[in-house]
Amino acid sequence: VRIHSEGTGGLNFLSTGYDRRMSPRLPWFASLFLSAVLGVLGGCQSPRVIRPSTPAPILQLASAAPMQIATDCRPRGSVVVDFVVQPDGSTSAIRVPAVPECLRDALTAWVASFRYLPPRTAVPGTVEWLLVSAQKGG
Questions:
Q1: DSSP character string of 62-125
Q2: Which of 24, 29, 92, 128 yields a CA-CA distance of 20 to 30 A from 121?
Q3: Chain-centre distance of CA 51, in angstroms?
């Protein structure tokens, strides 16, 4: 800025070309905010899709004994039984939820009789047993 006087005795200020009102600069807090937003967006990446290297094996039941329930057992509803199919096709780790003992014994023996086509590794399995009854002639 240069100061010069004219014949009026007053002081006049001449600009050297810089006028703060015409500046494209943002206030410091806006610059800080914009920098933070760009920093966060720059660090964002699309999520990486993780695919299993091999699909879960499909279990194929080769054989099963008929389920034998004691004649005095009165099961009702449905029961989900979890187990593991071993590489030789047999079942193990049979888990039957809290049900009457006669039904638990029958379900455990039935699932233990399952024979699957041998998977490469041990595979978890589940079966749901559901009682369906109907009257004869109805």
A1: EE-PPP---TT----SEEEEEEEE-TTS-EEEEE--S--HHHHHHHHHHHHT-EEPPPSS-EEE
A2: 128
A3: 12
Q: 4 falls in which pLDDT band (50, 70, 90)? A: very low
Residue 3's SS3 state is strand
Tokens 């004219």 correspond to 6
Residues whose CB falls within 8 Å of the CB of residue 115, separated by 6 or more in sequence, listed in order = 61, 62, 63, 64, 89, 90
Chain-centroid distance of CA 82 in Å reads 21
pLDDT tens across 28-58, in order? 556 666 666 666 555 555 566 666 666 666 8
Contact 91, 114 (CB under 8 A): yes
